[in-house]
Amino acid sequence: MDSVPTRTSATVTLWRPTGPEELELIRRSGWLAWPPRLPDQPIFYPVLNEDYAVRIARDWNVKASGVGHVTRFKVRLAFLAEFEVQQVGGQTILEYWIPAEQLDELNANIVGTIDVVRSFRKSDGADGGPVEFQADTTNYPPKEMDVLKTLLAKHRAKPFPKSVETGLDYGKVDAVPIDADIFGWATRFERGEFLSELEQMRFEEAAMELAESIAAFPLTARSYFESLLEIANHAIKRSR
Fold first, then answer.
1. What pLDDT score does 108 carry?
2. Of 214, 155, 148, which is closest to residue 180 (Cα–Cα)?
3. Which of 148, 170, 181, 238 is the most buried (most CB within 10 A)?
4. pLDDT at residue 218, rounded to an integer
5. What's the pLDDT score for residue 18?
6. Do the beta carbons of residue 228 and residue 214 sit within 8 Å?
């Protein structure tokens, strides 16, 4: 079980203890987003190690809701860099405090899916204490097409970055055409349309060139084009 935050050069792995109602809302998102906070929940608290999340899910969520789940997800390090790690107890009791109004931004910076890694419920014994069980994993991980549909919807809702100049090449790509091409091909595939062999080849070449060009974009625009690349990767994986 992890006791320290897991980092790569691009992401931080986080955990969150989750009750059944919140988990259902995550499922409806395609396992890609956390639901909006309630009025009495001004802060979103992801934690930095699994052991801490297990303790909360097992000892608090089970008492409150009868069931507690431990979820795991990855967030881009560039987004988390503006937040301080909060130590709220012992050395491993570490959290990020994300204001509710920035939850949409956090969701936009999730890489991959939100996964359930452990689940607990009240036992049937006399003491009614928590016991671990295997949650229904029918939709874990989500179907790739459902993921693609949700990724496309999220990207469609984002404004084109103001820091990107139209007509200017960034690395190997021109920002506006690469956005239109990849989004267009992925949308056609999501709708069940057939891509010709030439279109498929151009789609894969565009994704490769975008991947090689991400670092050339302004920092404020990179998450937009990283999400575009994620769309391309999901569509290409399904179309092969």
1. 84
2. 155
3. 148
4. 95
5. 96
6. no
